[in-house]
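G.,

No rush on this.
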Amino acid sequence: MRKLLTGMFATIVFFSVSILPPKIIHTATAQQKPVPPYAKFGTLAMEKTHEKYPNAKIIDYLHIGRITGSQSSTEKFKLWLKDNSKEFGVFVNIEFNNETGKVTNITFKETSR
C-alpha cells in the first residue's frame, strides 16, 4: 500500500508541475552611458556662470559643440538663467589647450533668446 501511495504522490506531483506554465524571469540591466568629453567643461561652465550671476538660477543647459584648433579648442555652451522675474541666456565659451586640457580663457555673452 505504501508503494502505491508513493507512486500516486509522485504522479500527482509530476502532473501538477507539468501543467504549470513555465516561469519566465525577466532581468533588467542598466546600461551606463559613457561620460561625454565635454562633461567636465559643462560643469565648469555652470560653476563660473553661477559665480558671475550669483542671484540667478540656471534653469537650462545646452552643449552647442566644440571648435577644434591646432593648439587650442573651445567648448561652447548656452545656459538659460532666471533672476527674479527676468530670464536670459548666457553663451559660455571655454578655451583650453589641446595637449594639457588646461583652460586658458572663459568668455560670457548674454542674450535675450
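When you get to it, here's the other one too:
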Amino acid sequence: MTGDSKPRVYLIGAGGSISFIGDFRTDYINYSYRNRHLTIEQMLDNIPEARDFAEVLPEQLVNVGSANITPAHWLQLARRINDIFALDAQAAGVAVTHGTATLEETAYFLNLTVKDRRPVVVTGAMRPPTGMGTDSDINLLDCIRVAAAPQSAGRGVLTVLNNEIQAARDVTKSNSYRLETFRSGELGCLGYADSDEEVVFYRSPARAHTVDSEFDVSEVEELPRVDIAYAYAGADGLVVNALAEAVWAASWPPAWAVAARRRSSCRR
C-alpha cells in the first residue's frame, strides 16, 4: 500500500432498518410492511463522503429484517469475512450493516469466530433512511470510518451506533425507540466516532476474542439448535417439557432419547 492509498474497507449488507424503505417520513415503526430495501450500493451512494477516506467495496449478503437472520447467516457471514482477510492482505477492515433486533447476537458470534485482528464493525439504524432525522447515514459513515481506522485493530468485533463504539461481547439493545439504545452496562463504551472525524478509544476488551477465541467454524456446516427456557416466578414445567419433547423428537439419537426419558422418570 502506498502512502497515498486509502484504507480498503469491505462493506457487507445484511438488511435491517438501516435499509428499509417506508412510505412517509414519520414512519419510524411499521416501515417493513412492503419489505422494500435499499441495496448496499444505494446506501453507500447516500454517503459519498465515505469515499474521501476509504476505498469501499460493497457487497450484499442478504437484505432482510433482523428477525429473519438465522445461524446459517452467521456462518455465511463469518466465512465471508475470514475469506476476505485470508485473500486480501490490503484489506483494512470489514463493515457490516444489520438490523438492530439481532445485531448484538450476530456481532458476538463474529467476535468468537472471525480469525483476524483487523477490525470488523457492525452497525444498524433505529430510523429507516426514509424517516425524518434518520440515523442511517451517519451510522453507516461511522461504521466505515471505524473499520478503516488502524487503532480499531485488535479490539475484537465492534459495534457503532449513535457515534458510540461498543465491544460486541458487552453491548445490548436496551430500547426499541431511542437512538442511544445500544449500551454496555456498567462497562461503558470503548470510544467514539467523534464529530471531528476522529476515531477515539479509551479502553480495550480484556476477554478472549477473534484469533484468541477457541471457536473455529471453518469446517462447520450447521450450528446445533439450542432452545432456552426462562425461569421466572410462578413458572411450571410446561415450557421445559415442551422443549424436551421437541428436542428428543427432532435431533437426539433414539438411544439418547430413551436414556433421557428413563433418567427423567427416575427423578420424579
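The chain is about 30% helix and 20% strand. Residues 225-268 form one domain.

Enjoy the weekend,
O.
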